[in-house]
Amino acid sequence: xxxxxxxxxxxxxxxxxxxxxxxxxxxxxxxxxxxxxxxxxxxxxxxxxxxxxxxxxxxxxxxxxxxxxxxxxxxxxxxxxxxxxxxxxxxxxxxxxxxxxxxxxxxxxxxxxxxxxxxxxxxxxxxxxxxxxxxxxxxxxxxxxxxxxxxxxxxxxxxxxxxxxxxxxxxxxxxxxxxxxxxxxxxxxxxxxxxxxxxxxxxxxxxxxxxxxxxxxxxxxxxxxxxxxxxxxxxxxxxxxxxxxxxxxxxxxxxxxxxxxxxxxxxxxxxxxxxxxxxxxxxxxxxxxxxxxxxxxxxxxxxxxxxxxxxxxxxxxxxxxxxxxxxxxxxxxxxxxxxxxxxxxxxxxxxxxxxxxxxxxxxxxxxxxxxxxxxxxxxxxxxxxxxxxxxxxxxxxxxxxxxxxxxxxxxxxxxxxxxxxxxxxxxxxxxxxxxxxxxxxxxxxxxxxxxxxxxxxxxxxxxxxxxxxxxxxxxxxxxxxxxxxxxxxxxxxxxxxxxxxxxxxxxxxxxxxxxxxxxxxxxxxxxxxxxxxxxxxxxxxxxxxxxxxxxxxxxxxxxxxxxxxxxxxxxxxxxxxxxxxxxxxxxxxxxxxxxxxxxxxxxxxxxxxxxxxxxxxxxxxxxxxxxxxxxxxxxxxxxxxxxxxxxxxxxxxxxxxxxxxxxxxxxxxxxxxxxxxxxxxxxxxxxxxxxxxxxxxxxxxxxxxxxxxxxxxxxxxxxxxxxxxxxxxxxxxxxxxxxxxxxxxxxxxxxxxxxxxxxxxxxxxxxxxxxxxxxxxxxxxxxxxxxxxxxxxxxxxxxxxxxxxxxxxxxxxxxxxxxxxxxxxxxxxxxxxxxxxxxxxxxxxxxxxxxxxxxxxxxxxxxxxxxxxxxxxxxxxxxxxxxxxxxxxxxxxxxxxxxxxxxxxxxxxxxxxxxxxxxxxxxxxxxxxxxxxxxxxxxxxxxxxxxxxxxxxxxxxxxxxxxxxxxxxxxxxxxxxxxxxxxxxxxxxxxxxxxxxxxxxxxxxxxxxxxxxxxxxxxxxxxxxxxxxxxxxxxxxxxxxxxxxxxxxxxxxxxxxxxxxxxxxxxxxxxxxxxxxxxxxxxxxxxxxxxxxxxxxxxxxxxxxxxxxxxxxxxxxxxxxxxxxxxxxxxxxxxxxxxxxxxxxxxxxxxxxxxxxxxxxxxxxxxxxxxxxxxxxxxxxxxxxxxxxxxxxxxxxxxxxxxxxxxxxxxxxxxxxxxxxxxxxxxxxxxxxxxxxxxxxxxxxxxxxxxxxxxxxxxxxxxxxxxxxxxxxxxxxxxxxxxxxxxxxxxxxxxxxxxxxxxxxxxxxxxxxxxxxxxxxxxxxxxxxxxxxxxxxxxxxxxxxxxxxxxxxxxxxxxxxxxxxxxxxxxxxxxxxxxxxxxxxxxxxxxxxxxxxxxxxxxxxxxxxxxxxxxxxxxxxxxxxxxxxxxxxxxxxxxxxxxxxxxxxxxxxxxxxxxxxxxxxxxxxxxxxxxxxxxxxxxxxxxxxxxxxxxxxxxxxxxxxxxxxxxxxxxxxxxxxxxxxxxxxxxxxxxxxxxxxxxxxxxxxxxxxxxxxxxxxxxxxxxxxxxxxxxxxxxxxxxxxxxxxxxxxxxxxxxxxxxxxxxxxxxxxxxxxxxxxxxxxxxxxxxxxxxxxxxxxxxxxxxxxxxxxxxxxxxxxxxxxxxxxxxxxxxxxxxxxxxxxxxxxxxxxxxxxxxxxxxxxxxxxxxxxxxxxxxxxxxxxxxxxxxxxxxxxxxxxxxxxxxxxxxxxxxxxxxxxxxxxxxxxxxxx
Length: 1773
Description:
Elements: H1 2-13, H2 21-28, H3 32-40, H4 46-50, H5 58-74, H6 81-88, H7 92-126, H8 151-155, H9 157-172, H10 174-186, H11 207-219, H12 229-245, H13 250-416, H14 422-433, H15 446-449, H16 460-485, H17 493-496, H18 505-528, E1 545-550, H19 558-565, E2 570-574, H20 575-589, H21 600-606, H22 610-625, H23 655-668, H24 675-688, E3 694-698, H25 704-715, H26 730-739, E4 775-781, H27 801-808, E5 815-817, H28 822-833, H29 843-847, E6 867-869, H30 877-886, H31 910-933, H32 953-1003, H33 1009-1022, H34 1031-1068, H35 1071-1110, H36 1131-1136, H37 1143-1157, H38 1170-1215, H39 1220-1308, E7 1314-1319, E8 1322-1330, H40 1355-1368, E9 1373-1375, H41 1376-1388, H42 1411-1419, E10 1424-1426, H43 1427-1435, H44 1442-1455, E11 1462-1463, H45 1465-1470, H46 1484-1500, E12 1502-1504, E13 1507-1509, H47 1510-1516, H48 1523-1535, E14 1538-1539, H49 1543-1586, H50 1596-1637, H51 1645-1651, H52 1655-1667, H53 1669-1677, E15 1686-1687, E16 1689-1690, H54 1692-1702, H55 1704-1707, H56 1717-1729, E17 1738-1739, H57 1740-1745, H58 1747-1756, H59 1764-1772
Parallel strand pairs: 1-3, 1-4, 2-3, 4-5, 14-15
Antiparallel strand pairs: 5-6, 7-8, 9-10, 11-13, 12-13, 16-17
Helix pairs in contact: 7-13, 10-13, 13-14, 16-32, 18-32, 18-39, 19-28, 20-22, 20-23, 20-24, 21-22, 23-24, 24-25, 26-30, 32-34, 32-35, 32-39, 33-34, 34-39, 35-38, 35-39, 38-39, 40-43, 40-46, 42-59
């Protein structure tokens, strides 16, 4: 294909092309060659090609491909955005693909154009020549296919062409211009232009002066720049200053003049050159214009000459045309032959093109399929992205809420200083679950209660903030009300009310009363907001048989079927008959109005589809054959030729005629009749037949949609839509049909609810969908019925959706048939009638006497008259039962309501109906007997039948509106009260924090104690030193110190008294008591709200039942009473004097203040508010009880009135003056009225119990909240008092310490240079701030100090580092990065004090970035470090050997007799350590450092006071240059014996022990095998010996003999046991030895033979021993020696303990994982090595020789000895 493209492009472009990818891309990316190719194929014209620019500028390339994309789009070549970008970047692969598409498209166009030209030429040859010439009109102005923006440029294109020609001419005349230029230079002086150039006058200078000036100019060259105006002014000023400073010499003046002369000369020369250029350009332009005019004249002459030559050529052409006309006739026959051959070639080409088109279609199909897959993938990816984004947003919002919750929890924890009350946590949880902000949106909640004037407009931000806070508070209000209404936490009755019994009778009656109230409320709401009526079914009688038949092959079958069904009065309905009936009705009713011609031929001609034509033909045939429908014309109707015209509005058509009119119009337009229209026509047609008991529709419906429309039209209920089924199985279809409900639009659904009570009425549950029809039969024709199988399960492959739908409903009776004969038709009719009984009834009883035998039915002899049922009725039992299970249970009181099934027969015959009635009567009798035995149903229970008496609609609407207002007011009042209480509780924590902060400020107020101390210290230091050692002077100073102490004590006492007074003032402020009063009033308001609601509920129940019984509204009205609140002002003083407190309020306030003053915790017994709240609760409960008694008396009167009414009715019954109907009405009224009375009583009782429970809940909740409030305030004041006491005690202690310090200084007779600070409750001695300069004391004889060293740490520095590290990481383990940061801070940012720096001087030269490298050299690759190892390295002492460590371990363990692994300070310091011998005994500084090092090491591993863990100390010094040897030292410390870690040294011993272990294993296996064989032999012999033996009881003598034998055997056994015990002791000793030393010692040969002995294994070694005795003696000399002082193997526990202690960060510190990777590595190595030892121990040499273990030990560097000085020197250098 590449070669074809090369040849094609070379042919079209007439030039070779470089096909290298890069060069090809650079050549083709501007699109100029693509445009040339398109122009060569006449896809674009010259004007379009002119728009393409041949440069590679980005703008030109973008513009070119913008045009090319449009032109390629016309060729159906589409370029994607990515392809365009790649083409513009010059990518060859995309360009090759583009040229391939161009080749396919344009080459096809070439072939097509060639065929068209050939056809045109041939057709022109055969045409008759009518005229000699053909004249075509040519437009003078040719329209160009360019845009309007490019048109002006194209109109001026001749100027561009002229410019191109001009450029070529200018190139040719270049030499001529040069010549003219020279001439112009010669004649410049003769020109008329004034050059205005005057030669400057230059002062003559000597050659020496010139040389000097040239040297100066070269040394200081002048710079010419483009300066701004300001820069020029600055230069001028600077030059003037320099002129003034310069010496006024002659040489300088000459240099300046020479410089100015040169500058003027240069400027004049430039001006002169500019003038010369102007002259030359003008002359050249004149010359060019002249030559251009002459050239134009020459061209015009040439064109005229060419025109004359063209005329001559035209004449010649005319003569040639005549000759060609003669030749045409001769060539006609040849042309016809060529045309025939060309036609064959075209046909072959057509076939090729057709094949190519098919191939392209397949390619396009695959491409489209791939594109669709990609689109689906993109859609799925986008869907998943949005889904993830949605989940992310949910999670993000949730995490923000959790963060807010945690933040607020931490904030409140900090404020409270302890556990947060559950009240606040519950509130935050409610906000979290309701997606509201946890934090308050506004700072002051009082702003929500502020009323803004209407004219004041709030800022949008303020308004939005208020709205957010209102939404937040509304959410809390709703949440708290729901919790209160549902008795949820914190309103749980079990927690609030003591001794509460949830199973009590009161709770039961409250629940039933609430249900009665719900019945009343929802009954009223349903009156005010009624439900929408259901759609009525078709107006048809309740037929006993309603059938559908599909697949009836011959319409002639309907006549015998009708004959068989006439006896049952079942009409056979054909769709054509129903349509014709409606059309004829329309025609009949339009007689005298319009001439209606039901022309079926016209309908057939107009119909557009073939199916519609066939349908109309069927209608026509039905009209011609049918005798049922006749056009009945009234005899009074006058037949006129011209129809009578009546106004349209006066014409009223019947339903059937209206449907016929619509069908007539549809058929006239040629359209098909809709399914809804056909269903309506069937209904009207069936309705026209009055005396029938059923019908069967033939060959309709044929799809599920048609069946659904037919079911909806007949039954008024819509089946499930086809979309909900999908491609599902049979069970899913059953569930869908069973669960399908009619979707109704209920506009009152949202408002027909109550938030206070639930709806006790049973939901309006509709029955699952049931078919209107009783049977559905589908007939399937087959050639051989014996080859068909019985289908028990209908699937998508063997049935349609309509078949499965009716099969699920249980009415599908389908069958195969070859020919429909009389027997099959009889069977079909039986299904239609419903005769499914076994045995079936006779044909005469079903179809009439002799009807079947006399039936004229054509039989067929050539085919078998057999049928096979597809799905018989037996298979429908499963589906029918599934449907019945989903049907809701019917009430037993409803008679004759059963689920209809195919085997139901009560619809067909009266006798079956009678039997069903008898069964129902028996069921009713059984139900009545069961009701008598059951417990009486209380009003409001689940099985209670509510009284149903009619109530006036106006009364019901009024009562419903009243209840809505009651409910709204009740909920709003409670929510506002809860909001008020919540505000109070939210102020509790801030107030407590406020008083604590305020008291803290008061407690810590500054005092003048420091002034006294400073003055005293100054006086003390100013005292003369000579008198300090005098005892009298010391006594005087002690007295003064005592006076200072008393003065300071007095200040502390005054501060404490003042703080306590302020605390009392806060208590007397009465904020807490006022808030508690407000809270108590809030709860009393809640009780008042409940009381008001209770009274209104009593009134609503009374109005409802009174109106229901009396039919008129009640005039009796209740008035609520107010509860007593706590008033701050008395009634007497509120009007006369302002601020007069109520007596009770004042007394309660005094009692509460007294409790707080005495620090008495407030509880239920001493709470001053309990009495008022309890009195209010008792008063409310008493009032509710009185109201209940009042209504009960009223209800009893109503009950007696109803009883009297019933008695009067009985008297009327006795007199027989009323009819049976009136008796039934009275009985109905009596039953419902009595039910209403019971409901009324239950309702008021339930309301009484409800309000009682609510009052108790509010009472105890008030106690609970008040206690929470009081306890927190009590705790706060208690903490304040404790703070006052603690601060006072701290102040006293600080004063005591200060005075003691003064006393010690006085006794020692020294001054106090440090500044003494006594601020607050602290006493500080500041050594950084000195009162006077200190004099360095001279060292006494024998005193030594540490000498400073640039590289070594002082022990005091290490001690300070140890203190800092303990603060950061007390356990000794620190994160690597944190340790690096600490070292950097200590090295470079350590605070210096009088103790000096923290590091040596050399460390200060370390680069900060090198600290991490230094740490890596010490600790290797690790996440955690042990800072104690770092301090050990800094000690710069020699690490011990294994022998030194073992010796030290032995000495320390001797002093640790209890093996506690700890030792005291004195014992440790007495022991000589390994490094002490390296210190010079005669050097006091070395000895001092040695002692300090021992003390430092002790304190480094000190676990508690004077207790050190020496095991950790020894393990920390198990280090060596070889980390393997260091690890072996650690193992030696663990087992107390030197371990063999080198495989070269221990290989022979280990191999010997491994072989010995293998030998033992083999012997043990052999012993087991021998034991098993021996036991098998013994058992076999015993069984053989005992077989057939009888067991008898022997005499006593024999028993005695047996006993003697047993004793003998016992003695032998005893000896054996003794032998065993001896061996056991030996093994025990070995075990103890191995356990203590954990070493392995090879046993002797004697022990092996005695221990492991068995017959088959014992013989072979004896033979070998005899044969190879001499060899064994020789080998005995070279036997491997096992050192008992070496531990070759250690237990796995020892290794694990060492690793976990020394490397906890590798083996323990991974909390997020169950196991670190290093644990798995070690476990794998141990599992591989434990098989080599009989106890599962590990050989140390093999363990450390493992590559992974070796690499790990070198990596961690825990057991590697490092020289700190060497490493620091490496870093510094």
